[in-house]
Amino acid sequence: MPLTLAKHIEVALRQALPDRQQYFLHEPQFEGNEWKYVKSCIDDGWVSSAGAFVDRFEADLSRYTGVKHAVVCVNGTAALHIALKLVGVERGDEVLTPALTFVATANAISYCAAAPVFVDSSLDDFGVDALRLGDFLATETTPKDGVCINNTTGKVIKAIVPVHVFGHPCRMDELKTVCDKYHIAIVEDATEALGTSFLDKHIGGWGPASVLSFNGNKIITTGGGGAILTNDTALAERAKHITTTGKTPHRWAYHHDEIAYNYRMPNINAALGCAQLEALDGMIEHKRALADRYANAFSSVDGAQFVQEPADSRSNYWLNAIMLDADQAESRDEILKYLCDAGIHVRPVWELLSDLPMYQDCQAADLTQARSIAERIINIPSSADLGA
Amino acid sequence: MPLTLAKHIEVALRQALPDRQQYFLHEPQFEGNEWKYVKSCIDDGWVSSAGAFVDRFEADLSRYTGVKHAVVCVNGTAALHIALKLVGVERGDEVLTPALTFVATANAISYCAAAPVFVDSSLDDFGVDALRLGDFLATETTPKDGVCINNTTGKVIKAIVPVHVFGHPCRMDELKTVCDKYHIAIVEDATEALGTSFLDKHIGGWGPASVLSFNGNKIITTGGGGAILTNDTALAERAKHITTTGKTPHRWAYHHDEIAYNYRMPNINAALGCAQLEALDGMIEHKRALADRYANAFSSVDGAQFVQEPADSRSNYWLNAIMLDADQAESRDEILKYLCDAGIHVRPVWELLSDLPMYQDCQAADLTQARSIAERIINIPSSADLGA
Question: Is B304 exposed, middle or buried (0-12, 13-18, 19+ CB in 10 A)?
C-alpha cells in the first residue's frame, strides 16, 4: 500500500519536473553577475567585511524588502542571535518559538541565555497559529507592568520568533494583534522567505527586527550569510556595532565598549549576494511556475496534497512540499526511501524541536497540529531552474 | 621634540619601504590561483559549507602546520569559542588571557559564560610571560583534585589562551611547564601566527586545541575565516559536530543532539584560502625581507626600536612594530598622527582588555609589562608586497 502511494507520488513529481537523471532538493543558480562581482572583490583586494559590496547589498536588501535598514551577517543564525538581543532578550528571559522550525531558531534563543517556549503551528501556513497562541497566552501568562509573565516559571516572555516556513508567510496581522496585547516583541524568522509578501507587503517589517538567510540551500545564497532587517535606525546602528566587535570608531585606537560579536558578512560573500538579488525575481517566477505544475500534477493523487501558498500571500515557494493524508503518515519514511532511491531527493520536515534532547525539558504548549504536520510533510525538489 | 622623533621614524620607514604614494598597514595579496578556485566554486554551484575546498583547505592547513586536524570556521572568534568548549570551559569557569590582545580573545571566553583573568605580557615576545604567570599562579591559586582553584574567587581556572602577538611566538616550552603543573589547558591563539615556528616546529600543537584566523588583515585571508587545530581526533570530530549545528548524520532526518553553532566556513571562502595558502611561503619570505630592511633602517634611530622575532623562533612577521623608548611613550599619539597625516598608515596596539568597560571588573595580575608595551608600540606597514 505505501509503495502504491510512493509510486503515484513519483509519477506526479516526474510529470511536473523537466526530464533529468536525478533531482536535488535545492540547488543555487549562478547565471548573472556573480562572477563579475566576486572577481572585482579579488581584483581590488577587498574581500573582508569592510567593503563596497557589503554596503551595496545592505542597500539593495532594504530596497527590495521595503524595510528601512538591513545589516548583513555571517549567517542567519548570527542574525537571529543579534535580532533577539536588539529586542532586549536577556539571560533568564523566555522566547516563544514554533516547535516546527530549524534548530537555529531555538539555538539563537539559547545563545542569549534565554529559554524557548514552544507553541503550535497552523495547518494553513505551518507558521505560528495565532488563535492557539492567543489561547496559550490567555491561560498560561499574566500581564504585569507592561510585560508578559509566564505563570508556570515566573519569567518574562520577551519575544516571539514566528517562522515563515518554506517561504509561506505566517498570518502576521493576527499574530501582531495577539503579541501587542501581551507586550511580546516580534522577531520574524524570514530566513526562508526573501521575496514573499503578505497582504501585498514584503514580509520582515511586522516587528522591531526580522531575519533573512542566504545559506547555500536558500532562495539566494552568499555561500553563508544572513541579514537583520529593521525599520528602526537606532536598532540598525546597534546591530552594526555589536556585529563588529563593539568597536567605537576612531582613526587608530582599538576601543570596544561591550561584549560583542564578529558577525559581519565578508565583502566577497556580499558580492555574490548582490548578483543573486538581481536574479531573485526571475527565480521566484520559475519557482512559482514549478509550484503550479506540482499543484496540477498532484490534483489527481489520492493520499497526498501539494502545499500551496496561504490566503492573502504571494509566496516565494522556496521549498515545495506535499502533505500526506493523516492515514498515510506512517508510510512517510518508506516513501522517502523509495523516492531517494529513485534519484529524487526528498526529505521530511524537521523533527519537532521540543523532542530534541537539549530542548525536551522546555515548556511547550499543546503541539497537536505541529506534530501532525511534522509527521506528514515531504519536501520535494524546488530549485528555480526546474521551473524555467 | 616628539616631532623630531616622528620625522626620524618617517625617514627610517621610507628608507625601508619601496617608493609609494601611501602605505597601508596590511593589504592582502591575490596573485595565485584565487580566481581559478573561486570561479570553480561558482561554476559548480558549491559555494556553501559542504564543499570540496572546505575539505581541501582543512587538509592543506593540517599538512602546513603539522597539526593532525584542522576544522575551518566562519572566523577566528568562532574558532576560539569552539576551542575553549573543546577543552571543557563551561559556565562559571575562569580562563587566563593576556590583557594585551585583540578583544576577541576575551569575548570568546565570555561566550562560554566563563570569565577572563588577565595576566602580564613578556617584554621579549609580547606574549604571556611564563615566569610572571608562574608567580601569579603560585600566590593566587591552589591545586585541588587535579584542577586549579582561584583563591580569590573559588572558581576553577580551566584554560589559558596564550596569544602569538604580531606573529611572534610565545615561549611555549616554558608556558607548557607552568600550565602542566597547574592543570591548565592551553589554547594557543595563533590567529596572527600562521607560518610561525618556535623551536623548529610550527606553532599550534602545544595544547589540546589552537586557533588560526584568516580575516582580511591576516597573513592569508578567506574574506572572513578561522580554524581550530588539534592533534586529537575525537576533539576534531567534536569540533566539526558543534560547528555544524550538532546535526547527527542521516540520509534525510534532521536530528540535532545538543545546542550547537552554525560556524562552518563556506566553500567559496575556503577556495580563496586554498589559493592563499599556496602563496604563503612566498609572502613570508617577502615579509621577512621587509623586516630585515626595517631592522637596518631603525638601527640608527634614537628613541625607537624595531621589534624583531624572539629567540628560538622563526616569525611570519605578520605585523611589524616599533617600540618607543619608555621616555618617549607620551609622544605616541602625536607620532601616530604625524605618520598617518604623511600617508603612512600606522596604529597603536590594542587598549589593554582589562581597561575596557566590560572587562574592567575582571581579576588581573600585575600588568606592568603589558601596560608598558601597550603605551610604546606602533605598528607599521607590513603587507608582503612591500618586501617583494
Answer: buried
Topology of domain A34-278 in CATH is: Aspartate Aminotransferase; domain 2 (3.40.640)
Encode pLDDT of A264-291 as tens digits: 999 999 999 999 999 999 999 999 999 9
Reported as a pLDDT band with limits 50, 70 and 90, residue A252 is confident
A27 close to B (CB below 8 A): yes
Query: Per DSSP, what are the bridge partners of residue A73?
Result: A226, A264
A48–B110: do the CB atoms touch at under 8 Å? no
CB contacts, 8 Å: B221 with chain A? 47-48
At A101, give phi and psi (nearest 5°): -160, 170
Average pLDDT, chain B: 96
Could you tell me the sign of the dihedral formed by the alpha carbons of B29, B34, B35, B39, in that order?
negative
Measured between CB atoms, which of A77, A272, A346 is closest to B262?
A: A77
Question: To which residue does cell 546597534 refer?
Answer: A238
pTM value surpassing 0.80: yes
Secondary-structure breakdown of chain B: helix, strand, coil percentages, each rounded to the nearest 5: 40, 20, 40
Inter-chain touch A346–B35, beta carbons under 8 Å = no
Separation of alpha carbons B53 and B41, rounded Å: 8
- Domain B2-27+279-351+377-387, CATH: 3.90.1150.10
CA angle A300, A303, A306 (to 5 degrees): 60
Which residues of A are less than 8 Å from B349 in CB distance? 254
- B42: chain A residues, CB-CB within 8 Å: 30, 34-35, 38, 272
Measured CA to CA in angstroms, residue B267 lies from B35, B56, B73, B275 at distances of: 14, 10, 11, 13
CATH 3.90.1150 fits domain A2-29+280-351+377-387: yes
- Do strands B94-98 and B115-119 pair parallel, antiparallel, or not at all (unpaired)? parallel
- Region A244-266 average pLDDT: 93
Answer whether B44 touches A (CB < 8 Å): no
Query: What percent of chain B stands above pLDDT 90?
Result: 95
The answer to whether the CB atoms of A252 and B348 lie below 8 A apart is yes
What residues of chain B, 46 to 65, have a C-beta less than 8 Å from chain A?
A: 46-50
What is the ipTM for the molecules in this complex? Answer: 0.96
Q: Is B314 exposed, middle or buried (0-12, 13-18, 19+ CB in 10 A)?
A: middle
β-strands B141-144, A313-314: how paired? unpaired
pLDDT band at A67 (very low <50, low <70, confident <90, very high): very high
**How far apart (Å, rounded) are the C-alpha atoms in residues A292 and A306?**
10
User: Any idea where the domains of chain B sit in the sequence?
Assistant: 2-27+279-351+377-387, 34-278
Interface test with chain B among A43, A57, A103, by most B beta carbons within 10 Å: A103
In whole angstroms, give the CA distance from residue B132 to residue B139: 11
pLDDT in tens, A222-232: 999 999 999 99
Select from B171, B168, B250 the least CA-distant residue to B206. B171
